[in-house]
Amino acid sequence: MSRKVIATEKAPAAVGAYSQAIAANNLVFVSGQLGMDPATKQFAGDTVAAQTKQALENMSVILDAAGTDMAHVVKCTVLLADISTFGEMNEVYGSFFPTEPPARAAFAVKDLPLGALVEIEAFAVLPD
Prior knowledge:
- Helix content is 23%, strand content 33%.
- The chain is α+β, with helices and mostly antiparallel strands.
- The protein has one domain (3-125): CATH 3.30.1330.40.
- The chain has a six-stranded mixed β-sheet with strand order 1-2-3-8-6-7, covered by helices on one side. It has a two-stranded antiparallel sheet with strand order 4-5.
- Helix 2 (86-96) links the parallel strand 6 and strand 7.
- Helix 1 (48-66) runs parallel beside helix 2 (86-96).
- The protein is globular.
């Protein structure tokens, strides 16, 4: 089995003992992404929409660093600080996956790191 750590300065650095992503064989496992701007190290905004957009932009650049892209995402998990914001998140999320979206689960959780409103992780495949 091949295993490679994926890291890019175009996304926020890990804030704990984890990698931005791991590529193993033909799979890429992207760690949960918060809606933090990598340049300012601050949340992109105080709405679920703004943080969702930034989290997915962060995911996109990590996937690019791994040699794949959003079209090759097969599964996402979305964690929300408040389930009532599901619709707001879903609208932005859908714009990143306009056709043939990946499988997905979404959960409300008690708290997210750093007080985030949303966190999104993904599994992707490498292109043939």
